Amino acid sequence: MSRRRLVAAAFLLPALVLLGALVVQPIGYSLYRSLFDRSGDAFVGAGNYRRILSDPVIRTALRNTAVWVVFAPAAATALGLVFAVLTERVRWGTAFKLLVFMPMAISMLAAGIIFRLVYDHDPQRGVANAVWVGVHDTFAESSAFPGARPGRDSPLEPAAGGALVTRGTVRAGEPVLLPLVGVAPEALPEGTREAGRAAVVPGKVTGTVWQDFTRGGGGRPNVVDPAESGLAGMRVEAVKDGRVVASATTGPDGTFTLPAAADRSLLRLPESNFRAAYAGVEWLGPVLVTPAVIGAYVWMWAGFAMVLIGAGLAAVPRELLEAARVDGAGEWQVFRRITVPLLAPVLVVVLVTLVINVMKVFDLVFVIAPGAVQDDANVLALQLYRTSFGTDADPGLGSAIAVLLLVLVVPVMLLNIRRMRKEASR
Asked: What average pLDDT is seen over the chain?
């Protein structure tokens, strides 16, 4: 027996040496170093741990880590479960699984760069905002003239709510000139033509809304000069006693015609003409940056959950599912009362694995979150890096954060070990 023990110890010794050098020694040194100050000379005891609770930046990291632990593993597991169940019912399920699992082949750094571009605020570059702005503009089209304003000595003046209104009333049979400036030539709507002079129509109010600016200079203010562009699609309202009595929309040359009811009224260009273009959602702003990064994580790890759950689903006895359907159970009842309970051990494995994984999330947050909002997206693993390295490094506080992270992970690891032992004893 003693010889066998010596042989076993000889085979285990290299692994134990590596384990001690790469795991036990760093943990012990981190615990020791967390009891000293920045320089490592003065013993501070639990001072660094008290700083963790008092520092608002680290408290934000703790709160965000809790959000990650609660939502990211649950979302990835739920999505993986849905994908695993649905891909069993389609002919091209294997190809779909390949597409969903493919992000796992990408490093966290590469995924972070991809989603930094996806979440870009400019709809011309960011896919998320391009889709969001497209949907928004389908139901609420933005104005083409957000920068338009009256020029010098203009007959228009600002009114409440951002509208523009004429300084005096207009009369039928007398064309009205409504000049504006501040619209970039490239921002003019497609199909815009040279500004036209409104015709005199007896009994009706006519006029022109145009860009009162001549390229190269030489134009006269408040006069329709050649080569000046009409502002097409501009809404013009006739207002009497605070009530809109008539309205019209300018044509491609900027001209409009209002009925006789507009006689002796004020003309108003409502604020809808000058509403700024919808710029989309600030995905990487202080409010949404953490959900946005969690979305990138779920995109990467839903495939991992799907593969493990799919393997467990393949082992589910089909006769139980068929028996339930024969007894009249619907698909939702079969899924909720039979499939999910039978998959519970696999779901726990996936969930626990992802919980441990999100505790170490660093790359995604570091790459995706801009520097201005990195404190808002901060997590413990990132704070550990920021505190321990750099020009203002504090190894003592960094070691305390590392010990805290270990303490948070250990209960999950013990739960996982207990579950594996329970499964092995069956």
From this structure: 88
